[in-house]
Amino acid sequence: MTVLPDDVIPFNLPDTEFNEAVTFAYHALTHQDHTHADLLRQWVQVLMDELAERMVIHWLRSNGKFAEPATDKGATHPALRHEIWVTDIRGVNVKAAIYTALSTHKSDVPSLLRAHSLSVDPDQMCGINFSVGYWLQLREKPRIKIPSLQQAAIIGWASDKNFREVVKSREAHHYKYVAIKFCDLRPVNELLQFLV
């Protein structure tokens, strides 16, 4: 398993999907309890997560694969989990989770791949786990100080089996999160052969 810079899938989403993501984020935030939350921070996180989910779905569908949200986007109190259903080559529905990361100190894909990891709570692990990265550009010009669509990409994926192998390779098995470096994930194009 190795993800190279050429393996990441740059952000690609039709304007209609972007607008629906914004609408969902607003709907979600107006129907959640904000007693102890910073609304701006929560808004940015919900929107980034929603865009990531839609980016993965759009990419899968563009490659002729089935993909649907696993949660009800129209619910009065929508779940903020970002999981989708895909179908494997046996015809079995498999749940896939989409995890986002925002890098504040690595401003290019090669550095991002070496520095960051996909960290998953074993209790929330799905059969397929996607990583979508956003990165800022604070020292170069033009400076990008907030999340940007031009600085976003589907990084890679790992199966639940890949994470179990990581746990087995460690001496202790009592970790809150299991992590795989971005560069050690599987290229997303490789996943297409396992899906219909």
Please state the CA-atom Rg, rounded to the nearest Å.
17 Å
Distance between the termini: 22 Å
The H/E string reads EHHEEEHEEEHEH
Give a short account of the largest sheet. 6 strands, mixed
Task: Estimate the helix proportion, in percent.
Answer: 25-40%
Specify the structural class.
alpha+beta
Q: Helix count? A: 5
Overall average residue pLDDT:
92
Approximate shape: globular
Q: What percentage of amino acids are in beta strands?
A: 15-25%
Strand-helix topology:
Elements: E1 9-10, H1 15-30, H2 39-62, E2 67-69, E3 83-87, E4 93-103, H3 109-115, E5 117-120, E6 128-135, E7 152-159, H4 160-168, E8 178-181, H5 188-191
Parallel strand pairs: 4-6
Antiparallel strand pairs: 1-7, 2-3, 3-4, 5-8, 6-7
Helix pairs in contact: 1-2
Throw out a few tags for this protein.
196 residues; globular; alpha+beta; 5 helices; six-stranded mixed beta sheet; two-stranded antiparallel sheet
Short summary of the structure?
This protein is α+β, with helices and mostly antiparallel strands and about 200 residues long. About 30% of the residues lie in helices and about 25% in strands.
Your description of this structure?
With 196 residues, the protein is α+β, with helices and mostly antiparallel strands. The chain is 31% helix and 23% strand. It has five helices and eight strands; from the N terminus they run E-H-H-E-E-E-H-E-E-E-H-E-H. The strands form two sheets. Strands 1-7-6-4-3-2 form a six-stranded mixed beta sheet. Helix 1 (15-30) runs antiparallel to helix 2. The longest helix has 24 residues, at 39-62. 30% of the residues are buried. The mean pLDDT is 92.
